[in-house]
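Fill in residues.
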């Protein structure tokens, strides 16, 4: 996780844990966590992302899925500067995430939460902010039916996507509820299955 790795790298773990333990509203949590990045240079954030290991053979899996006609991408509650970097590195088609603000390559501590994450009349759950809403946005863009999707995730913020997708995969998840609702549980960091 980029935010957790950044907390270790930049020394704001205590502040991050305080935000997570004192707030319950996803929007406020997102806004407050973004303030922890204020003053950081974008290249510092990319360096942190580069030091997070990617599951071996991920690029090959993405290439194979695309060869088979799949549209492959990232839906994340992280930041676009990071998810776009990973998307480009792995050759993915799209990246949907929060937009961390920069001025002259320096983070302002502000974040824009894109409208595609918010609840709307087509939403499948009652959450005000949910990755499933972003999934539906991508499906509309590419004219894909929900039953023809695969969602892979590892935590509670992936639960709705995993439940609603045609095929929901819990990947190295330690969350019992996520594993329970997934169609497939992969417990080893390996996409070959």
């Amino acid at each position: 996780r980029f935010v957790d790795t950044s907390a270790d790298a930049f020394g704001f773990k205590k502040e991050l844990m305080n935000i997570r333990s004192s707030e319950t509203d996803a929007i406020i949590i997102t806004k407050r966590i973004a303030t922890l990045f204020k003053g950081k240079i974008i290249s510092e954030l990319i360096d942190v992302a580069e030091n997070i290991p990617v599951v071996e053979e991920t690029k090959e899996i993405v290439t194979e899925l695309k060869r088979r006609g799949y549209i492959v991408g990232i839906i994340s509650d992280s930041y676009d500067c990071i998810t776009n970097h990973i998307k480009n590195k792995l050759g993915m088609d799209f990246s949907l995430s929060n937009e961390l603000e920069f001025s002259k390559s320096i983070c302002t501590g502000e974040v824009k939460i894109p409208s595609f994450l918010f609840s709307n009349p087509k939403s499948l759950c009652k959450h005000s902010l949910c990755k499933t809403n972003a999934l539906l946005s991508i499906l509309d863009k590419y004219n894909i039916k929900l039953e023809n999707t695969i969602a892979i995730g590892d935590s509670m913020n992936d639960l709705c996507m995993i439940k609603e997708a045609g095929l929901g995969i819990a990947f190295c998840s330690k969350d019992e509820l996520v594993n329970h609702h997934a169609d497939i549980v992969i417990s080893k960091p390996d996409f070959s299955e």
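Residues 61 and 191 are 7 Å apart (CA to CA).
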